[in-house]
Design goal:
Helix content is 40%, strand content 17%. The chain is of the alpha/beta class and 95 residues long. The protein has a single domain, classed as Rossmann fold, CATH 3.40.50. Helix 3 crosses helix 4.
């Protein structure tokens, strides 16, 4: 099984995505294939369409895709998840 973990955080340069990296290491240690995608940006910025297409292409052969985010990342993550085919409902949560 291939698992892709995405971190869209603007805090990557300072926080370096420790939690996402630890989770990927644990998955690998247990024999799972994992890949990390870091998408640093400025707070409030949205991703360009080309970036969204690139992420979808990178995730295409993944069995599971996880997104690690904080509240200030939500606005930028919705278009990313929609590009992958996940739609958020009002009040949170994916369907």
């Amino acid at each position: 099984m291939k698992i892709t973990l995405i971190s869209p955080s603007p805090h990557i340069p300072t926080m370096i995505g420790y939690g996402t990296r630890i989770l990927a290491s644990c998955l690998k240690r247990e024999g799972w294939e994992s890949q990390l995608i870091f998408l640093p940006r400025n707070v409030g910025d949205l991703y360009e369409e080309g970036t969204l297409r690139d992420v979808v292409a990178l995730c295409r052969d993944s069995d599971l895709v996880g997104v690690s985010l904080m509240t200030d990342d939500f606005r930028s993550v919705v278009p990313l998840t929609r590009a992958y085919g996940v739609h958020w409902r009002r009040g949170g949560g994916a369907r």
